Amino acid sequence: MFELVLGLGVALGLCVYLVVTLVAPERF
After folding, report:
1. Given this model, what pLDDT does residue 15 score?
2. CB 13 within 8 A of CB 6
3. What is the pLDDT of residues 1-28, one digit of tens each?
């Protein structure tokens, strides 16, 4: 169960990171 939650957290973090880098690359 813990591995599933950790996997979802990592996947969500990667999605947010990709969206941020694609939408606002000049800010970061």
Report:
1. 97
2. no
3. 899 999 999 999 999 999 988 988 776 5
CA distances from 13 to 8, 9, 16, 20 (A): 8, 6, 5, 10
Two tokens, residue 16: 């947010």
Whole-angstrom distance, CA of residue 26 vs CA of residue 21: 8
Please give the structure tokens belonging to residue 8.
């979802």
Instruction: Confirm if 28 and 20 have CB atoms less than 8 A apart.
Output: yes
Q: Is 23 helix (H, G, I), strand (E, B) or coil?
A: helix
